Amino acid sequence: MVNGIIIESQFALHHIHNTEQLGFDCRAYSKYKYGDATRAAEFGRALCDGFVKKYSDLLLTCNRQFMGISSPKGLVPPAAYYMFQSFLNELNLYLTANGRPAAVEHNIKRVSTMSADYSQLETDQRFAHLTKEGYSIDKKPLEGKFLLIIDDIRITGSHEKIIVQLLKSLSIENPRIFLYFAQLLNPEVAATFEHELNTCAVSCLDDIYSMLQDSHCNFAINTRLVKGILRADEKQLDAFLERIDIKLLIQLYEACLAANYHNIDAFSSNFQKIKTCFNEKQKKNPID
Questions:
Q1: Quick one: which of 38, 37, 137, 44 has its CA closest to 84?
Q2: For the whole model, what pTM was predicted?
Q3: Which of 38, 81, 163, 283 is the most exposed place for a label (fewest CB within 10 A)?
């Protein structure tokens, strides 16, 4: 309870009880997970609108400044970070319009990563893999803040559990709410449902290329997109690399390096293809 207001530990815009009735466009969500930043912005605004409707009293009376924290990320962000940015922008429009200080941003750093697609793993496997990644957070900026920890979907709660453990290990006891665009509440639904959701509109490189051709899609590099390309069938990858322009190829190549994917054995073959194509296109079409 804060200022006499009952605060729940989690807030989700959509509660999933039936996988056939999600309450949101599953195809739009799939495209969002693979780089459609236009969808990310829409989801972030919708999440903020729902949160403000429920917690307007808290937002307008809390004696702490709000701090938005996105899902853990490295130098290459996950799709959720683009949604988070939209959420925070929308929230700050509301706060400042009502004479409240703007919320500030902070990050949980992902120390390392692996090749696994967590959406294909069950609960125990997910937690084991995520624990190996390692997270860190700078404690000092959190002093006096109310934490809004934001992610796109809660399926097993593994990410949340690890973040709670991280905060506890650092004696961080700030009031906090975990916010999600959607949350699975039916325990009978397998955790691998998330993979079905992620790939219902984007399951191959041809689908990604179609997104690139969509004038309504503001395309943004993210970890799932890059990993998906690095896992792709080699023949599909060859065709994809030939079709994309040099600017996107540079983004892809630099993202592989920034995320250290070039040192992951499972990605080495496709990374070499990306590197070779990058070098060849640079010679033909140099960009300063």
A1: 44
A2: 0.92
A3: 283
